[in-house]
Amino acid sequence: MPRHPLFHGWYGKLPLAFISMDEKTLRTLEYPKILDRLAGYCAFSASAEKARALKPSTRLPEARQRQAETSEARALLVERPSTSVGGARDIRQSLKAATRQVVLEADQLLDIKYTLIASRNLRRLFEREGDRFPHLAEITLRLPASTGLVDAISQTLDDRGEILDTASDQLAAIRRDLKVEHDRLLTQLQRMINNPDISHYLQEALITQRDGRYVIPLRADFKGRVKGIVHDQSSSGATLFVEPLSVVEKNNKYKELQLAERDEERRILLALTAHVAEYAPALEEMLEALADLDVAFARAKYAEELEAVEPKLVPMTADRRRRAADRGQSSAVSRPPLALSHAEGSPIIRLLDARHPLLDQEKLALSGGEGVIPIDVELSPGTRALVITGPNTGGKTVTLKTVGLLALMAQTGLHLPVHPDSEISLFKSIYADIGDEQSIEQSLSTFSGHITNIIRILERADTRSLVILDELGAGTDPQEGAALARALLTHLLERGITTLVTTHHPELKAFAHATPGVVNASVEFDMETLRPTYHLTIGLPGRSNALAISERLGLPGEIVAAARQEINPADLRADDLLDEIYRQREHSRKARQRAEEAKHEAEEMRAELAERLEAIEDERREVLENAREEAEAEVKRVRNEIRDLREELRRAHKPLEGIQLVEEKIEELSEEVEIPVERHAPDITPLSGPIQLGSKVRVRGLDKVGIVRALGEERVEVQIGMLRMRASLSELVLVGGDEIATADSRPQTTDHRLLSAVGGHPSPGIELDLRGQNAEEALDMLENYLDRAYLARLPWVRIIHGKGTGKLREVVREALKNYPQVTSFEAGKHNEGGEGVTVAELRK
Questions:
Q1: How far apart are CA 27 and CA 350, in angstroms?
Q2: Is the N or the C terminus of the chain less surrounded, counting Cβ atoms within 10 Å?
Q3: pLDDT tens sequence across 431-479
Q4: Is the pLDDT of residue 777 over 80?
Q5: Between 838 and 720, where is the model more confident?
Q6: How much is the mean pLDDT over the chain?
């Protein structure tokens, strides 16, 4: 029987897509800690092991597929929070034993059964929902359809692992005989201990067992008074446990039946083991598929914890141009990677509101800080290097680690704690030199350790690598260190290698400013509090704050002034210019913040106004409805008076023409009175645009925020958590500005049919009003409407037939039973019209 790679570890020989990631860098960037947290969300050990073995992929299609799996898993868990591989066990050792013909124990067989049940449940789920979750459904194709093992194990073992009497006819017969023989044996012994001639020889009147044989406790003083075989004695020696000779044969028979039972149970377990071994390859494949699914679910749960989003994975500019040339869209001659210009081979790094995933937001806040400060890191096309300067403990190293770690996570299929508009290219390899590289064992100083690591990086990196260097040129003479840092950065640029660098050398600021493809960045420092702000500013170098900080801390002014005279005046002017730029940027930032706050305040005022108008509209309807009811009662009274008057005129043989005119006027008035008071939605245009698919809205009356999942002419479907409800447009308030839940922002959980209802066949709307129609007319309208609704792929429709006598309701529901595209229907909820409305679900 061929052995599955499962028995050789989860990943065996890694494919080429995984072998380039540097293990030292993975540890430096704390990637294993991410995997440990991910494994904590796994449901069983096989998937946890697989999670810890994950490596970043360098193939764009594979990385995108992993991201899609994570997004689908998040969407599924939102709709079905209980979805999991629950019940699955790590049965690898059991399968290995079965293939070696080692008899499996009952608990091992039960583990296999529960794992098969979990597999069956997931397979059935994705057979129904596969169109909505195609990437997860593809994994479940590896789950076996049916092996017969679940039934075979269930017919053999109960839930406690006991072998059932019905497991075989032979076992049933043996256990019947065993029970009979057991009863006979105990009956005879019971008679003996109750016999007055024997009972006074016994220590106490009980039957017990020694070495699997039934015995009675005989007092040692009366040894020999009861003929039998001594099997044991008490610790004091006062009691002998004797098997009377009269029951030896019955004990022998009972023991023989026990051995027969044991042999038959072993034969049954051996048959089940052979059945398992027969399907071992399929079960191994099933276990690996379950582990893949569970890892996808774990990625989804971890993303929820991080409040992360799916990043946009984009190819490097060179990859795009090569594909265009292959399609004949470019006449450019292809060149070796190292010959590519900076613009052609540049990657995309655009991480907005990025947070380091291992920093504890709540813990930082409780310690008196501001929590995790998000940063924006953006390398535009053509940029190959980013030089970050700023004060110590200002967040330079955290910035480097954040970018490197998020790049690894994106290529692993993990969602990132960033803004939805973030995007990043895939790197074939990532190298990092961060922290103290001092090695006592190798007699290397910190500087030597860094240089040794950088040499190793230079030997391996290429144009598809990301190199991260912390404190470049530090640990040695400042002048030599700065020169070496410039030379290294120049070398990396000439080779077209994307590089992120932190440094304290001011020479590198000027180098970055004067060199194409290099951009300055800085972490800011608050001169008022003398603390770093941890905000990253792209495009500006860090300021020299040493003199200002010294003066603020109380260093004598004459010392600060003397130090200032020693500095090149050009450098001082540059610092003053930087100060002015930073002040202007801060002023612009605050102005933008005030504008956002004003917009938010306007939105709140608009919402408050809408609520007030709603309350006024409710009051208006109530007043008009009361007036209508009073008018209706008055019309009824007048009708009765006219009827009485008509009767009097008829008896008096007077003409009725005058009263007929009055009756006609009364009928006209009656028709007007019977018209219900319509609700008028307040005409307030939202500041952030109309409600559309994916809009975040607040449902009035519930004070809950949800996402629009389907649009009709006057009603929409809103998802609030797991709940989907229908509401009129007038009951919704748009929230969250222009934010729309799309595939680029949050996982797309919208039913594909809802989208086609907008972009495919024209939608007939989600409501059909049949009130006032006779049965034949209603059926024609209903059939035509259902056909159009199905072609438009609406998920459900709302049919209004009124209550009345119930005849029209019966006709409608009978028709729905026979309509092939209707899967189910039910009466409307209380706020939807109750029995006067029928809501029908349409086939997918």
A1: 24
A2: N
A3: 999 875 544 344 456 778 788 889 999 999 998 999 999 888 777 777 8
A4: yes
A5: 838
A6: 79
Structure tokens at 395: 């967040």
Helix (H, G, I), strand (E, B) or coil at 122: helix
Residue of 395 and 152 predicted with greater confidence: 152
Residue bearing tokens 């059991």: 94
Alpha carbon distance 34, 704 (integer Å): 34
Give the number of residues written for the chain: 844
In whole angstroms, give the CA distance from residue 287 to residue 630: 72
Q: What is the pLDDT of residue 790?
A: 82
Query: C-alpha angle with apex 375: 370 to 377, nearest 5 degrees?
Result: 170
Please name every residue paired with 498 in a beta bridge, in sequence order, or none if there are none.
Answer: 466
User: Cβ contacts of residue 52 below 8 Å, gap of 6+?
Assistant: 32, 35, 36, 38, 39
Region 132-136 average pLDDT: 92
pLDDT band, very low/low/confident/very high, at 586 (cuts 50, 70, 90): low
Candidate from 361-365, 596-600, 774-778, 836-840 with smallest mean pLDDT: 361-365
Spatial CA neighbour of 97 closest among 277, 278, 290, 281: 277
Measured CA distances, 160 to 106, 110, 269, 353, 790 (Å): 9, 9, 15, 53, 50
Check the CA dihedral 136-138-142-148 and report its sign: positive
Q: In the chain, pLDDT over 70 holds for what percent of residues?
A: 77
**Cα(509)–Cα(574) distance, rounded to whole angstroms?**
11
Q: What is the pLDDT of residue 578?
A: 59
Q: Give the DSSP per-residue string, 394-455.
A: SSHHHHHHHHHHHHHHHHHT--BSS-TT-EEE--SEEEEE-S---BTTTTB-HHHHHHHHHH
Query: Which residues lie below 8 Å from residue 327, measured CB to CB, with a gap of 6+?
Result: none
Longest C-alpha distance within the chain, in Å? Answer: 132
Task: Select from 572, 446, 426, 460 the least CA-distant residue to 62.
Answer: 426
Q: How far apart are CA 785 and CA 381, in angstroms?
A: 53
Neighbour count for residue 404 (Cβ, 10 Å): 25
pLDDT band with cut points at 50, 70 and 90 for residue 361: low
- Predicted confidence band of residue 328 (pLDDT cuts 50, 70, 90): very low
What is the pLDDT at residue 17? Answer: 43
- Count H helices and E strands in the chain, helices first: 26, 23
Beta strand extents in 56-158 (DSSP E only): none
d(CA 806, CA 804): 5
DSSP of 506-540: HHHHHHHHHSTTEEEEEEEEETTTTEEEEEEEETS
Residue 753: which residues within 8 A CB-CB, separation 6 or more?
793, 794, 795, 844
Question: pLDDT-derived band of residue 722, with 50, 70 and 90 as boundaries?
Answer: low
Mean pLDDT over 746-775 rounds to 58
Q: What letters, b where the CB count within 10 A reaches 16 and e where it falls short, cover 757-778?
A: beeeeebbbbbbebeebeeeeb
pLDDT surpasses 70 at 313 = yes
Degrees to nearest 5, angle at CA 817 with 813 and 818 = 120
Predicted TM-score (pTM) of this structure = 0.64
Q: Which residue has the higher pLDDT, 290 or 505?
A: 290
Query: Residue 283 CA to chain centroid, in angstroms?
Result: 27
| Residue 120, CA atoms < 13 Å, CB-side half-sphere | 12
Neighbour order of strands in the sheet with 715-720: 723-728, 715-720, 704-711, 696-699, 732-734
Tokens of 474: 């530090």
The tokens describing 137, both together, are 């459904």
Q: Which of 624, 605, 628 is nearest to 616 (CA)?
A: 624
Q: Each residue of 604-629: b (16+ CB within 10 Å) or e? A: eebbeebeebbeeeeeebeeeeeebe
**CB-based burial, 358-373: b 16+ in 10 Å, e otherwise:** beeeeeeeeeeeeebb
